[in-house]
Design goal:
Number of domains: 1
CATH architecture: Alpha-Beta Complex
Oligomer: single chain
Structural class: alpha+beta
CATH topology: Sulfite Oxidase, Chain A, domain 2
């Protein structure tokens, strides 16, 4: 397993487009990975891909489907999203035995010095923050057992617990112009952009526990973004920062053509 400084390492778009995430259990749970999905799109057409898992094709079909993706994002964000619609919860007896683990780095990302880790909250805020894991654990806690949805077409039930993003928002006090948040990771600068309304949804949390145990390195320790209302690639693992912005930020997969809103 690799040891990482929490400072993200930036790379250009060409490097990013050449990669697919490392799946820790790829041999144990064979199925469609992102590269296979691209082949499916070419061989069978976008309609087959959409039927497979509701995905609109990703980077390989740009620019033909990029405008469709933007339309889907607008419909999801402006028409279908509801701050009061909650994802279904399940009993812990229904939890899956395991969930595949994805990361961009060559090995499982792990901090060089976990005690020094901080979640930095900055950008268009009145009160910038640098929160330790103990400080996050002392804040209001939310937990649930929900179904995780992956863009590859599989789903699995797991339990998650952590701090509501809304609690972080209350503490940092965003400026009136802040409409988006960029979540950034120490997994080789993986990132995701979110609209503020989705981040404030009551089921959007910063998770530090999974299945009644501390969040493991394979799933984003020490802290990850989680929401059952979004596809898995929007749920940034190995978090290091939240930056409030007035313009819509991109993201690792979003910049390659994946839907930006990615609602479930």
């Amino acid at each position: 397993m690799g040891r990482f400084d929490q400072t993200p390492r930036r790379r250009d778009a060409k490097d990013r487009r050449a990669e697919t995430p490392r799946r820790q259990d790829a041999e144990e749970q064979p199925g469609l990975d992102r590269r296979s999905l691209l082949k499916l799109a070419v061989g069978a057409g976008a309609a087959s891909l959409a039927a497979a898992c509701g995905w609109d094709g990703g980077g390989l079909l740009r620019p033909r489907l990029l405008s469709i993706s933007r339309l889907n994002d607008w419909v999801g964000e402006k028409l279908l999203f509801s701050p009061t619609r909650l994802a279904r919860e399940y009993s812990t007896a229904e939890r899956a035995r395991s969930l595949p683990s994805y990361f961009i780095s060559n090995t499982t990302p792990m901090l060089t010095d976990p005690a020094r880790w901080r979640l930095v909250v900055d950008g268009l805020v009145q009160t910038p923050l640098a929160l330790s894991l103990d400080e996050l654990r002392a804040m209001p806690r939310t937990g649930y057992t929900v179904k995780h949805h992956c863009v590859e077409g599989w789903s699995a039930i797991a339990s998650w617990a952590g701090v509501p993003v809304a609690a972080i928002v209350d503490r940092c006090r965003p400026m009136p112009t802040a409409r988006y948040i960029m979540f950034r990771s120490f997994d080789d600068d993986y990132s995701n952009g979110w609209d503020l309304a989705s981040a404030m949804h009551p089921q959007t949390i910063l998770a530090y526990a999974m299945n009644d145990h501390p969040l493991p390195p394979a799933h984003g320790a020490p802290l990850r973004l989680y929401s059952p209302t979004k596809l898995g690639y929007k749920l940034t693992k190995y978090l290091v920062s939240m930056t409030f912005m007035d313009k819509r930020p991109g993201g690792y997969w979003e910049d390659q053509g994946y839907p930006w809103f990615a609602g479930v």
